[in-house]
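Appendix B, Record 12. Input sequence as logged:
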Amino acid sequence: MAQVGIIGGGIIGLSSAYYLMRAGHQVIVIDQSDLKDGCSFGNAGMIVPSHIIPLAAPGMISKGIRWMFNSTSPFYVRPRLSGNLLKWGWQFYRHSTKDHVERAAPALKELSLLSKAMYQQLAKELPFDFGFHERGLLMLYQTKETGHEEIEAATFANKLGIEARVLSAAEVQELEPDMRVSVRGGVYYPGDAHITPQALVSQWIPYLIANGVAFHTLTEVQDFTIGADKIKSVITNKGHFDFDEVVIATGSWSGLLVSKLGITLPMQAGKGYSFTLNNIAKNSRIPSIFLEARVAVTPMGSSLRFGGTMEITGVDHSINMNRVKGIVNAIPRYYPDIKINMPDAKDVWHGLRPCSPDGLPYIGRSRSFSNLVIATGHSMMGLSLGPGTGKLVGEIVNRERPSVSLNQFDPERFGW
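Logged structural output:
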């Protein structure tokens, strides 16, 4: 079996390590952080086969322009002189079409359903609880315009075989008996699920270590040595590593990393925020998304997590409290009984989502290097698509037929 190096210890890297370990490979995970607070920790924890429409879709450009002029809006692009941003923006514009959505949605659906099936297996196989629940997802709207858009999305989902139920305000309330909900209506996706992400990540790492996976944290990849059509070694601040196969799963840092190999991987970091309310006496049962505010809400035991915003600001770890304020202001509009104060900055989690310009992840073996596999660019869907992607990485390394077609996810589809 092969010695496999995985660069990146988020949900994609951990999932890949799990399936490669199970296939009998020797696996080493390298990460620049201490793996205590990455993008997989504080996100909304949603597993959403319902999300089959990519980020690059009709209407996103006009919405984004409107939102940019509101300091508390859910979307912002920091204007800056950046060739990479301009190229990314041009490709995003080119792909925000109906034709692209119709090509991309079936591929996203198949990957999402695979990943949900893998979560179902993990919940049975792993010797710990990570809060996996299959209760669906509520898409909540308050305006006629948003309702029309969401009902169109529901019709599209049903045509592709993803069950979606259009609900009145009263029917939404019936699904949430312990939480007063103020909406015009909603769409319910019964096939969605959710987990407590920090419970999965914090227990999965020790489990992988106990089963032979090695972790090198606080280890920064600086370069590679190349021989013929292969990566010979990975050069880090803590020495060189030689691998038979290399997997790059470094999220928002992937574009910069593969550029050292002469590969172009268009990527922008999309910053998101979350905070969690604890000890809620009467909690929500079903995860929801406040559509007008673009806020995701997930019950996790007696806690309730709120997350949102998409800031295209580069790899930047500052916290913009105006964006957090937008999330806070939205909560009582939809859940009137929840009284919430503005959280302190220290209680706000942030993560950087790796966004490709066409809204599709990069998954596959590189055409430039025969022993390089790329798995990144999942945008807001990293946790949802993680185990499915990990399963595919295992199949790619094993040179097996993949469980789903990888054509739409070709990591070198943008040949700039």
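The mean pLDDT is 93.
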